[in-house]
Amino acid sequence: MKTVRAIVTAALIAPMLLGAATPALAGDLLFHADDGEAILANFDGRPYWELQAYCAGFHGATANYWDKKGESDKARASEAAGVSALNDAVKQLMRDRGVTAAAAEKTAAPVVTIGGRTTAESLRADGMVSSGRWNYWRSFCIDARAAYRAAAR
Fold first, then answer.
1. Each residue of 90-146: pLDDT tens digit?
2. Structural domain boundaries of the chain?
3. Residues 92-108 pLDDT 10s
4. What is the phi/psi pair of residue 30, to 5°?
5. CA-to-CA distance for 80 and 78, rounded, in angstroms?
6. 66 φ, ψ (degrees, to nearest 5)
7. How much is the pLDDT for 39?
8. Per-residue H/E/C for the chain
């Protein structure tokens, strides 16, 4: 029950943290709950770039976890997924707001940090168990990427 409560709490609190860190602007391509899976529902109205930036942090922290375990192939795969998510976030910010890549990276950085910290805390708390918070965020990032790919066409 403790794990379920932690997962639900994480799902409810993360959008508030992101909203405080990065308000959506009028030109941002926004996620709408009917665009994706139920796991994304609490992120309704958040910018797609923000979901991708969060997942960049998730993948970065996961890469660090694998690296510490000596799993270099898994670490490289997680790092590549993180770079891809960050590139998507930066490209979308550039499109949405007409900013440079450097400005987009600066805007995305706090969200990447939140994603990385949340993931690192999850990994410390319960590792990669199927009922754990890390697995929730892994599923979230899979669905967020699919929803983004469909919307950004």
1. 999 999 999 999 999 999 999 999 999 999 999 999 999 999 999 999 999 999 999
2. 2-151
3. 999 999 999 999 999 99
4. -105, 145
5. 5
6. -65, -40
7. 85
8. CHHHHHHHHHHHHHHHHHHHHCCCCCCCCECCHHHCCHHHHHHCCCEHHHHHHHHHHHHHHHHHHHHHCCCHHHHHHHHHHHHHHHHHHHHHHHHHHCCCHHHHHHHHHHHHHHHHHHHHHHHHHHCCCCCCHHHHHHHHHHHHHHHHHHHCC
Listed residue (13, 73, 4) closest to 43, CA to CA? 13
Instruction: Residue count of the chain, please give it.
Output: 153
Q: How far apart are CA 55 and CA 121, in angstroms?
A: 15
Task: Report angle CA 20, 59, 70 to the nearest 5 degrees.
Answer: 140
pTM over 0.90: no
Q: What is the C-alpha R_g of the chain? A: 15
Distance CA 64, CA 61 (A): 5
Q: How far apart are CA 39 and CA 106, in angstroms?
A: 27
